[in-house]
Fold this protein.
Amino acid sequence: FFIRAAEAGLIIGIIAPLIGTFLVVRRLSLLADTLSHVTLAGVALSFLLGTNVILTALVTALAAALGIEKLRERKLLFSESILALFLSGSLAISAVLFGLAKGFNASVFNALFGSLVTVTESDLKMILTLGVLIIVSVILFYKELVTVSFDEQLAKASGVSVRAFNALLIIMAAVTVAVSMRIVGVLLVGALMVIPVLTAMNYRRGFKQTLIIALAVSLVSVVIGLLISFYAG
């Protein structure tokens, strides 16, 4: 079980700051926390319906991510107001759904804070597949994602489809949050997406160097965390 957890943890340790870097640059750090609370609602729904936890959480997070982006495009509300709306709303929905599903139990605690022993072989395959898709997407569209993150007007002038790449980024963020649930837990995945990036930004390097430092900080944190968890019981 520890080998599975380590493999999943390393994948998450790569994709979380990878996506987190773009979110921080766009001043959407709160998006990670918002999607994690939405994912919690997906977990509650899966307990109520008896469906696969990760798949239900993933679908819920994707639906919310697209809804957030749609509202942000219309500019009827400030971005932080939209995130606050989804964050508090999904938390309230989670409480109701957990109540209907006969309350909290050990499985809910594992979803909140992660659990090494709950990572199954099928979970690992899903995390690996989605993780590779995210990494490949960032590599293929790195230039466009950077341009959109720093200056949407410049991106439009350069012929970049801002709407498409905004949607791609927020979808990748939703996928990252959902697949990180088993290891990090929905309440802490936002920290893994943001804190390594904030640490890296203190070195005041270029975007690519900041991204590399954030990845290094994240992977070291994951490895140390796994080792302490395992050997300290």
Summary: The radius of gyration is 17 Å.
